[in-house]
Amino acid sequence: MLSMYDKELVLDILYQIQEASCKVIQRFERIKRVTDFTDSPEGMEKPDSICMLLIEIGESLKSIDKITKNNLLGQYSEVDWKGVKGLRDIITHHYFDIDAEVIFLVCEKHIPVLSCTVEKMIADMV
Q: Cα separation of 95 and 29, whole Å?
């Protein structure tokens, strides 16, 4: 599968993505609605820290694409990889335009799927 790529490097990156996605899940744990992000200074810190992790995840996925010549992520279609990498670009370049509702939905619906998929990818590679 990845015999012609640096499998250990890809695994290291996948472990980093898994750790970041677990942190997102943990930080989102007490958030029950979008206003939990927006109604207090403490709440506003959550999307800030989560967005930093989403940037890291997106950047790491771009690295995996580069290392594997775009051959690995496509084998796991349960995640919208292009969307994850695109979100990284949006957060990085248009941070002040980020909608708390978008971050809420990403955390609620997409990060758990991403986390499970990365776990599966790691298991498939070891």
A: 23
